């Protein structure tokens, strides 16, 4: 089983200097290849890799198409059984690949795996982007074991297990190459944010299994490309989540769920206004306008199969968190 670790880079020399050493040190196993996929950087990050890590293969994309297109383009030049898509701001740990390799070998039906993702800046806490595996509620809002909205749990080894999840974080995302190409990769219209949720949902509709493997640990800086408080991130998250609902919901649930989700987004916009963050309210408005503009194109992307089952375990994470006061996964 060949595994290729693919690090997507855009003007990230400082991140490569800081985090590539741990990947090289702790990935020295048979049949492991490391690739840097560069998204048309204008800094000297490519030359840094060439000079300091001659054994790392470099794939130079012609343009910066974001996370989705960046990986789609680069993986056309990679031959492997498993793709390990790793953010450039990820620090890996000793033995991080062992449990994941074992799971893939022993579970042929498992298509996608995520490790435990902790906060690089506070290593006792789970990190926002994925934590201990992701889920969505009835209206498409994502949450994780170990993270609901901005509430992050302390790692007390409560998630040192192997569990089936709904989505795996793109910060450190393992997928069988055959499945990635069967799904036609990431949806490039997303550019960045939530494209992994869409891909995982499409995998679920094809009855693929997605797992979290808690014996593998990585640390994620987070916000290295777009800061948590960025209105652009708000725009992408809200718009792309609507894209995902349209593409993947069963026909009989699409209209009622989408309508309620649009109303909830409006409530979020008012909340941002009351918090004196008008740029984020504007970002939600722009997200909805962009969503409507691309709606016909997005609707045409619906696959033939949308499983009409309970893909969510919580009706409304917004209600559970903000009204019922449930701040941790075990309270849900």
How would you sum up this structure, described in words?
The chain has ten helices and 14 strands. By secondary structure, the chain is an alpha/beta fold. It folds into two domains: 3-220, Alpha-Beta Complex (Spore Coat Polysaccharide Biosynthesis Protein SpsA, Chain A); 231-305, no CATH class. The strands form three sheets. Strands 1, 2, 3, 4, 5, 6, 7, 12, 13 and 14 form a ten-stranded mixed sheet that branches. It has a two-stranded antiparallel sheet with strand order 8-9. Strands 10-11 form a two-stranded antiparallel sheet. Strand 10 and strand 11 (151-152) form a beta hairpin.
| Portion in helices | 25-40%
Q: Output mean pLDDT.
A: 94
User: How many distinct folded domains?
Assistant: 2
Q: What order do the helices and strands follow?
A: EHEHEHEEHEEEEEEEEHHEHHHH
In CATH, the architecture of the largest domain is Alpha-Beta Complex
């Amino acid at each position: 089983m060949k595994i290729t670790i693919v690090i997507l880079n855009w003007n990230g020399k400082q991140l490569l200097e800081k985090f590539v050493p741990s990947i090289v040190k702790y990935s020295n196993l048979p049949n492991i290849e490391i690739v840097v996929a560069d998204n048309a950087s204008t800094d000297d990050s490519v030359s840094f890799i060439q000079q300091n890590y001659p054994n790392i293969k470099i794939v130079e994309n012609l343009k910066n198409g974001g996370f989705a297109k960046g990986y789609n383009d680069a993986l056309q030049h990679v031959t492997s059984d498993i793709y390990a898509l790793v953010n450039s701001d990820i620090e890996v740990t000793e033995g991080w690949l062992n449990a994941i390799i074992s799971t893939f070998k022993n579970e042929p039906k498992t298509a996608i795996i995520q490790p435990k993702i902790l906060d690089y800046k506070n290593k006792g806490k789970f990190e926002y982007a994925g934590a201990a595996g992701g889920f969505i509620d009835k209206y498409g809002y994502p949450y994780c074991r170990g993270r609901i909205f901005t509430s992050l749990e302390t790692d007390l080894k409560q998630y040192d297990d192997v569990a089936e999840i709904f989505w795996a974080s793109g910060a450190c995302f393992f997928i069988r190459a055959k499945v990635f190409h069967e799904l036609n990769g990431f949806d490039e219209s997303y550019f960045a944010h939530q494209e992994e949720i869409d891909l995982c949902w499409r995998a679920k509709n094809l009855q693929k299994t997605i797992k979290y493997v808690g014996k593998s640990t990585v640390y994620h800086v987070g916000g290295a490309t777009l800061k948590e408080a960025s209105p652009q991130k708000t725009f992408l998250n809200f718009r792309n989540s609507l894209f995902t609902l349209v593409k993947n919901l069963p026909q009989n649930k699409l209209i009622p769920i989408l309508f309620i989700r649009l109303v909830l987004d409006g409530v979020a916009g008012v909340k941002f206004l009351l918090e004196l963050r008008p740029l984020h309210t504007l970002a939600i408005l722009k997200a909805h306008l962009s969503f409507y503009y691309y709606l016909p194109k997005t609707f045409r992307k619906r696959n033939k199969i949308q499983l009409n089952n309970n893909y969510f375990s919580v009706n409304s994470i917004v209600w559970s968190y903000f009204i019922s006061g449930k701040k941790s996964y075990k309270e849900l």
